[in-house]
Amino acid sequence: MFKNYLVTAWKVLQRRKFFTFISLFGITITLTVLMILSTVLDNFLNPSGPSKNSDHLLFVDRIKVTSKDGNSNWTSQPGFRFLKDNVLKLKMPEKFSIFTVIEESASYLNGDKVTNHLRLTDSTYWEVLDFNFIEGHPFNKQELESGKKVAVINETTRRNFFGDANAVGKSIEINSQKYQVVGVVRDVSFMEIQAYSDIWLPYTTSSSTSYRSNLIDNWNAILYHSNSNMIKSMQAEYIAMLKNDFVTPDPEEFHKVEGGADTLLDIFAREFTSSYGYDSGAASLISILIGLTISFMLLPSINLINLNISRIMERSSEIGVRKAFGASTTQLVIQFVTENIIITAIGGILGLLLSGLILFQIEQSGLVPGADFRYSWHTFIYGSGLIFLFGLLSGAYPAFKMSKLHPVAALKGGSN
Amino acid sequence: MFSHIAKLIWNRKRSNVLIITEIVITFIVLFAIISATLHNYRLFNLPLGFNWENTWAIELNTGSRWNNETDKNQLKAIVEVLKQRPEIASVGLIRMGVFVNAHWRSSRPINGRESIYHSNMVDQDALKNWGVELVAGRWFGEQDNGQSYTEIVVNQLFVDEYLPDQDPVNFEFGDPEQPQILPMRIVGVFKDFRQQGEFSVPGPYMFTRYQIEEGHTYGVREINIKFKEPKTAAYEATLLKLLKSIAPNWEFNINSWEKRREQQIQNVVLPLGLAAVVVIFLLIMVAMGLFGVLWQNISRRTQEIGLRRAIGASERSIRLQIIGEILVLALFGISIAFIFLIQVPLLQLIELVSWSNFWFSLLASVSTILLIVILCALYPSRTAIKMSPAVALHYE
Questions:
Q1: N or C: which terminus of chain A carries fewer CB neighbours within 10 A?
Q2: Total domain count, chain A
Q3: Which Pfam family, any one, appears in the UniProt record (chain A) (predicted)?
Q4: In this model, does residue A132 exceed pLDDT 60?
Q5: How many domains does chain B have?
């Protein structure tokens, strides 16, 4: 039976090519836009680079600080002191890493300015994140503690400074200081906000030590557990720590700290819904995203509904015959909705190709440094979901109207 | 004629409701993108109030807490050295740099009314050197040292907003909640200084004077140097070396104003451009959809049109009927959308939609929609006219 539907759908598509083109155009454009957005989001949530084991990781990326009188509060990245005093004393995580967010630093090569992104990290950073070293190795705990001026750079930086030659052992000038390159890693996508950088240095090489006393600053932490089922309990432990035994050197200004140890989904939800309290807003995020998707589909759906309804007449004799031979309304509705979903699927495949092309162009344009958008099996799930939703939205009402045609009128050629 | 068309539409209300809904949504989407573009375009064309050519910003990162003794001397030494370089026309200190999205909002009552403004801090010659135009009074200077007031300059909008009927020069206002703080005295009025760049909304703005000597707990964050002629990256490297030799414990980041401005423009234009591309595709889709629907409907109404032709309706009146029908539908949809949209400026839901912006965007969207609708109806109406009455009546 399904095969029959397929054959009919195919015949209908070929019947009036111009109308088929209009339908497919609308479907393709709509699904292209949505597929680009969902692929970008998927690449953020399910990274394929150094943070690919993100289901073992939690990130302390934002804290909301309230003063004792409650008059002032601000949200920022945590500082070194906050992380050292509070986060590193958590019991559950097996590994911790603390590091700064990226900063710009300029280097001057043969009269040209090269802007690099720079990150200060500890040595466990290289254990919790899985970098792909093409040369050398990361800096170790000893080098960190002795404040040795060593650097890990990415492929692009190696090309900028040394051409195609090997870089390990050579020195590189960063912020007017010489560092020795110990490792070269593959470029990391900008979408992996905790891993991305051009140059990584041990944080002990910083020219001042003032960062050690800051509660809020530009630091981040990663908590790691080898068992991804422990993530939930680690989050609970972090919040319990904030609520019950948060240590502060300045109880007036830094009276209360809210926030969470976040998964990538939580980080996105916080930014998207501006919820910086204990709750990241991830639960409401999904319904918000579905709502936005449906509202974006609204106009294309109505357009397609209009087209489908006005095409009913094409099918009137077919409907009349089927009704006369006893097909039920439900059967007809199912048939027409299926047909519509098949058309939508064709538009969806075109949309997938088109969005791949556009994402490739974005990668080539260098707008997002190191971008490497990939389709994963998630893309196909999202894509099928979108196709199904869109096919249903735009197909249900016309199918209902079609199935209501009176058989006699339908056989005669139909009426309004 | 009109009532006849209205009746025809009413008779086919089911399918027309969908077309009207489509027009309503399209209209709202179109209106949104046009008014956002218009708003930004207008802002972009307002005068910036200063010149950004050949100027670089040296962002300071002094690391630890500002140490009055050592850091003050270090900053002074840097400014002195820079001022003596022949290629540098001027050196200016500012707290929040230009083309940066940082701002500092303050408020204080003036004549019993709470005033809200953006506040910033520069050294005494900076504004003059950047080409800011003085409208009344003078810039602050040495004569303000040790007086019983804090010298400030404000922009014309500040005066228009809070001191409309008064001579602003030498006007003083204090903070009643903190009487121990010196009152502020307006020594001069300048035209404008849109620190946050071309896409920022102009508003009341105030500068206080920065003196390295006074040793504020919060220092300046930027040294801005204006060159006599354009400079290259190679020069930037020597400049950075020079700075590092004076202050090895500070971090410097050099950025030209031009580059910052470009970045800022890109940040606004890129998302707007992407949205516009999506909207254009939506419009094409809607136009083709409407065209298809109209075409299909006309071919379905063969009998009706044939009958009209048989009893002597002219080609013109048939065409008028077809186009008239869709126009009435479109206008109906537009009116519904209008009822929603008028709430935006009425209730001031979104600040950026001013009345003039609203009417212009409305006009632009109405004409675009009507144009699309008429174009979509032209071809189907021609098919309708070409139909021979005899054939049309034989249909079935």
A1: N
A2: 2
A3: MacB_PCD
A4: yes
A5: 2
Is A204 among the domain residues?
A: yes
Same domain, A67 and A39: no
Residue B108 included in any domain? yes
Residue with tokens 């319990």: A240
Residue A15 CB neighbour total at 10 angstroms? 12
Measuring CA to CA, how many Å separate A168 from each of A8, A124, A157, B225? 65, 20, 12, 38
Do A17 and A80 share a structural domain?
no
| CA atoms of B285 and B291, how far apart (whole Å) | 10
- Over the stretch B10-69, which tens digit does the pLDDT of each residue have? 777 777 888 899 999 999 999 999 999 999 999 999 999 999 999 999 988 776 667 777
The answer to whether residue B17 sits within a structural domain is yes
Judgement on whether residues B291 and B374 belong to the same structural domain of the protein: yes
What's the gap between Cα B250 and its chain centre? Answer: 36
Between CA A118 and CA A103 the distance in angstroms is 5
Note the ipTM here.
0.80
| Pairwise CA distance, residues A293 & A289, whole Å | 6
Q: Is the domain of B41 the same as that of B59?
A: no
Indicate the DSSP class of residue B374: H
Domain that holds residue A147: 62-261
Residue B217 has pLDDT above 60, yes or no: no
Q: Are the C-beta atoms of B220 and B93 separated by less than 8 Å? A: yes
Same domain assignment for residues A30 and A129: no
Task: Record the pTM.
Answer: 0.83
Q: Does a structural domain hold residue B370?
A: yes
Is the same domain home to A97 and A165? Answer: yes
State whether A311 and A394 are in the same domain. Answer: yes
pLDDT, tens only, A364-396 = 887 777 777 877 788 888 888 888 888 888 888
Nearest by CB to residue B25, choosing from A112, A176, A298, is: A298
Contact A179, A129 (CB under 8 A): no
Inter-chain contact A29–B282, Cβ cutoff 8 Å? yes
Inter-chain residue contact B296 with A112, CB threshold 8 Å: no
Query: Quick one: B60 and B29 in the same domain?
Result: no
Task: Kindly report the nearest CA distance between residue B19 and chain A, in angstroms.
Answer: 7
- Whether the predicted pLDDT of A416 surpasses 60: no
Give the number of other Cβ atoms within 10 Å of residue A309's Cβ: 18
Q: Is A221 exposed, middle or buried (0-12, 13-18, 19+ CB in 10 A)?
A: buried
Same-domain pairing of B108 and B205: yes
Q: Please state, in angstroms and rounded to a whole number, the distance separating the CA atoms of residues A221 and B230.
A: 43
Claim to verify: residue A225 and residue A168 sit in the same structural domain: yes
Minimum Cα–Cα distance from A409: chain B residue = B396
Strands B172-173 and B184-190 turn out to be antiparallel
List Cβ neighbours of A85 (8 Å cut-off, separation of 6 or more). Answer: A247, A249
Q: Is A177 on the interface with B (CB under 8 A)?
A: no
Of the partner residues A111, A208, A313, the one whose CB lies closest to the CB of residue B64 = A208
What tokens appear for B276 in the block? 């516009």
Mark yes or no for CB contact A25/B237 under 8 Å: no
Whether the per-residue pLDDT at B261 is higher than 90: the answer is: yes
Rg (CA), chain B: 32
> Which of A280, A222, A194, A262 has the alpha carbon at shortest distance from A93?
A222
- Rounded to an integer, what distance in angstroms lies between the CA atom of residue B352 and that of residue B127? 29
Same domain flag for A344 and A387: yes
Which of B18, B240, B285 shows the shortest C-beta gap to A305?
B18
**Claim to verify: residue A208 and residue A239 sit in the same structural domain:** yes
The number of CA neighbours under 13 Å toward the Cβ of A194 is: 33
Rounded CA-CA distance A259/A63 in Å is 5
Over 50: is that where the pLDDT of A48 sits? yes
Q: Are B108 and B240 in contact (CB under 8 A)?
A: no
- The reply to whether B255 falls in a domain is no
For A62-202, where are the alpha helices, taking DSSP H only?
80-85, 125-128, 141-145, 155-162
